[in-house]
Amino acid sequence: MTDTLTAARLLAAAPARLGGIWLRGAGPEREAALALLTAAFDGRAVRRVPVHIDEERLCGGLNVAASLAAGHRIEQTGLLQEAAGGLLVVPMAERMSALVAGRIAQAMDAGAGFALVLLDDGGEDEAPPVALTERVGFWCEGVVSTKSVESQDNDPSRLSRAKSRDVISDGCDTSLDTLGTNGGEKVVASLANLSLALGVDSARALLFAQTAMRLHAQSHSRESTDEDLAFTARTILGPRATRIPQKADDTPPPPPEAEDEPPPGDAESEQEQHDPDALDDLILAAALASIPKDVLARIGEGRSARRATGAGGAGRKRASQLRGKPLGARPGLPRGGARLALIDTLRAAVPWQEIRRQQEAADAPKRLRIRKGDLRIRRFEERAEALTIFAVDASGSSALARLAEAKGAVELMLAQSYVKRAQVALIAFRGTSAELLLPPTRSLTRAKKVLGELPGGGGTPLALGLAAAAELAETQAARGRTPFVALLTDGKGNIDKHGQPGRAQAGEDALAAARRFAGSGTQGVVIDISARPQPEAAAIAAAMRARYLALPRADARGVEQAVSALQFGKAS
Amino acid sequence: MAFPFSAIVGQDEMKRALLISAVDPRIGGVMVFGDRGTGKSTAARALSALLPPMVAIAGCRYNCAPDEADRCPDQCGARKTAKVPVPFVDLPLGATEDRVLGALDLERALGRGEKAFEPGLLARAHRGYLYIDEINLLEDHLVDLLLDVAQSGENLVEREGLSVRHPAKFVLIGSGNPEEGELRPQLLDRFGLSVEVKTPQDIEQRIEIMRRCDAQERDGAAFAADWAEADAKIVKRIAKGKKALPKVAMPDETLQDAASLCIAVGADGLRGELTLMRAARAYAALEGAKSAERKHLRAIAPMALRHRLRRDVLDETGSTARIDRALTELFG
């Protein structure tokens, strides 16, 4: 029995208290867990939520089409009500919109009592909305991972005992009450300890862990043991970790006057050995194994996850049904936030009134005959404007080529900027400084004038260039533009952030600047057009949480197409 | 069933801010900064459940109080009154303007050709609480609109040929994690109080959280009964504070303290002083004091000013630390 399957079982036993399960990746493990859950919820409602479900279907409300046809109010029940006490499966959860996620989260908070299953097919930089992952207890792998294989050694014979299976499958929320306070204080204390060490701050996670640990112990008909704690660590607390536990770090350094005492390291480790609350190595190891490798990168996850769920970087949704400049009406049903354009609807219905009345029975009530096809909804154009910031490494021997291609790409983009409502800016960095050569503009003429003669050569102040790009992106974002940074470099900085030469320091500074860039949440791409791309540029891209493209010997058109494709979702 | 307000572990500042806003709703809402799962919505919900039921016109869609029924768009004045719980409205992320403000009643418009208004969440929140989780992710124009209504106490709808005006007085509670997106400073400034919440980094408190949540899940009724007495005390404190509020004196020294504090920390605009004054008075009333003294001012200064400081990119110290420093320098 793998962790994922065990988690699914426990979830089936106490859906309301464990919230649900987040299954990452598609694989046999996920199928097995789903099958197990579906079987366990046999007889209760099992519903699937398509990602782009509209609000009316989700929460219930007026069924516009049916009401019109019938001439009186027809309500439809929402999926969330239907799923109460059952199972709610969300395929492609990483694509879910904030609106749908917000509704589901609200229903869970209100005690809808369904178990939520998030099927996540996303890649590394995509995740389901945080509002939902926060509210599901288990974070498990859908593909068999080494972690779950390891866990098989915790005595499969016991799990397969008929008795334990009965407890699980018959179990419902009330069975928890019969548990008493097994394990008691010590267990609670060790959970508190573990969550603190892992930097798991949410009280929800703590409560999930408590319930899961009890159930896990109960399924083995025993008091809570370290094994149960380890299971919780692997499936609930570990994956949520925001820091790597370090024993010494949690204890404040001893005051300086205590220097005649034994070395602090020894004192601490001894103290921890005697401390009954101290973390067991075994549990820590279990938690460590499940800590995602990119713990640090994930700290700003809220933003990156949200960013990934949105459309491309091209100034958010461009045609909107909700806000912006009115664009006129088009046929459609007023749902999912779209508003009915009443006048246009009536205008569409009026010419048909005579014909429709003739089709109806003579004693039909006298009323306006509006059909589904008459409905018009409003459309708006959003004002968010895209901005492409080129940050170009103008140093060294390849400078001239790189600059020339960047310049070409800028001009190509500007040629279409009016259509795309996009602006372009260019920053060049060389020598000991980064310079904003072309402030954000939509004017091709201006760009041509400014970019006529660009100087090149000298050192590579990569950190400065990145910082300048990030700063420009942030100030522009504050003005309501959606910036996108295209960094053209080979990633080999040799001037640090203070303008001093030195490869090691420069590299560190560049990575730090890249991480800061990632923290700003701006989207970007790193393009390396040198003949033999080196790993440095990829490392910078990873730290920026940006895409990396190696385009050996690409020309201006190639660069422009790559940037457009990433920023606007399609090549121009 | 709501978690008893008095059973919430720690989070003293947030609880204090909520109580102050209950004593004087005009203070203008509370912004809560903090991670998910730190008990923000639990506390807000608990407070609204704690408050005694209010008298309203029975079945009125606008929660009209009997004395304001003449202004009700539904003209509900002739109807009977009833005691209803204080509303707590949870605004979902991604809510549309229609749902918040209210909109044309589609069914009546299409079915019967009537132009009727369907009240939105603002009407439902009248005289109660409007809680917005992740307010920093809400559309800016919606936040503008909400703050505007929260301040004027009235919702004016002029759209789709409708012209409706109805009272909407509520305490706005916003929450959000600033790391996931900032709220514009202009909007922040319009919140009366702001607090920062963190999960306790202390083992004992964490254990206590688990213990209490467990106790509630096992037997909600018994748990509520255990805390009923403590909750009743809080209700009494709020009621007393509300009654005493108009009588609490505001000595000149306190006003001077408030002004010099605002100058010292460099809070923009006059909202800082005004909020300091109102919050200090409400807090004094809550504490049963006859006049608002320096100690009351001190206790509420961080939450009244924290979000109004000009941000200095170079200065890494947080706003709270800067206020604390100013407090120590000024008042010792």
TrEMBL record, chain A:
<dbReference type="InterPro" id="IPR036465">
    <property type="entry name" value="vWFA_dom_sf"/>
</dbReference>
<dbReference type="Pfam" id="PF17863">
    <property type="entry name" value="AAA_lid_2"/>
</dbReference>
<feature type="region of interest" description="Disordered">
    <location>
        <begin position="149"/>
        <end position="171"/>
    </location>
</feature>
<protein>
    <submittedName>
        <fullName>Magnesium chelatase subunit D</fullName>
    </submittedName>
</protein>
<dbReference type="InterPro" id="IPR041628">
    <property type="entry name" value="ChlI/MoxR_AAA_lid"/>
</dbReference>
<dbReference type="InterPro" id="IPR002035">
    <property type="entry name" value="VWF_A"/>
</dbReference>
<feature type="region of interest" description="Disordered">
    <location>
        <begin position="304"/>
        <end position="333"/>
    </location>
</feature>
<feature type="compositionally biased region" description="Acidic residues">
    <location>
        <begin position="257"/>
        <end position="270"/>
    </location>
</feature>
<feature type="region of interest" description="Disordered">
    <location>
        <begin position="236"/>
        <end position="274"/>
    </location>
</feature>
<feature type="compositionally biased region" description="Low complexity">
    <location>
        <begin position="322"/>
        <end position="333"/>
    </location>
</feature>
<feature type="domain" description="VWFA">
    <location>
        <begin position="387"/>
        <end position="566"/>
    </location>
</feature>
<dbReference type="Pfam" id="PF13519">
    <property type="entry name" value="VWA_2"/>
</dbReference>
<feature type="compositionally biased region" description="Basic and acidic residues">
    <location>
        <begin position="155"/>
        <end position="168"/>
    </location>
</feature>
From TrEMBL, chain B:
<comment type="function">
    <text>Involved in bacteriochlorophyll biosynthesis; introduces a magnesium ion into protoporphyrin IX to yield Mg-protoporphyrin IX.</text>
</comment>
<dbReference type="InterPro" id="IPR003593">
    <property type="entry name" value="AAA+_ATPase"/>
</dbReference>
<dbReference type="Pfam" id="PF01078">
    <property type="entry name" value="Mg_chelatase"/>
</dbReference>
<keyword id="KW-0436">Ligase</keyword>
<keyword id="KW-0067">ATP-binding</keyword>
<keyword id="KW-0077">Bacteriochlorophyll biosynthesis</keyword>
<feature type="domain" description="AAA+ ATPase">
    <location>
        <begin position="26"/>
        <end position="201"/>
    </location>
</feature>
<comment type="similarity">
    <text>Belongs to the Mg-chelatase subunits D/I family.</text>
</comment>
<comment type="pathway">
    <text>Porphyrin-containing compound metabolism; bacteriochlorophyll biosynthesis.</text>
</comment>
<protein>
    <recommendedName>
        <fullName>Mg-protoporphyrin IX chelatase</fullName>
        <ecNumber>6.6.1.1</ecNumber>
    </recommendedName>
</protein>
<dbReference type="InterPro" id="IPR011775">
    <property type="entry name" value="Mg_chelatase_ATPase-isu"/>
</dbReference>
<dbReference type="GO" id="GO:0016851">
    <property type="term" value="F:magnesium chelatase activity"/>
</dbReference>
<dbReference type="InterPro" id="IPR027417">
    <property type="entry name" value="P-loop_NTPase"/>
</dbReference>
<dbReference type="InterPro" id="IPR045006">
    <property type="entry name" value="CHLI-like"/>
</dbReference>
<keyword id="KW-0149">Chlorophyll biosynthesis</keyword>
<keyword id="KW-0547">Nucleotide-binding</keyword>
<keyword id="KW-0602">Photosynthesis</keyword>
<dbReference type="GO" id="GO:0030494">
    <property type="term" value="P:bacteriochlorophyll biosynthetic process"/>
</dbReference>
<dbReference type="InterPro" id="IPR000523">
    <property type="entry name" value="Mg_chelatse_chII-like_cat_dom"/>
</dbReference>
<dbReference type="InterPro" id="IPR041628">
    <property type="entry name" value="ChlI/MoxR_AAA_lid"/>
</dbReference>
<dbReference type="GO" id="GO:0015979">
    <property type="term" value="P:photosynthesis"/>
</dbReference>
<dbReference type="Pfam" id="PF17863">
    <property type="entry name" value="AAA_lid_2"/>
</dbReference>
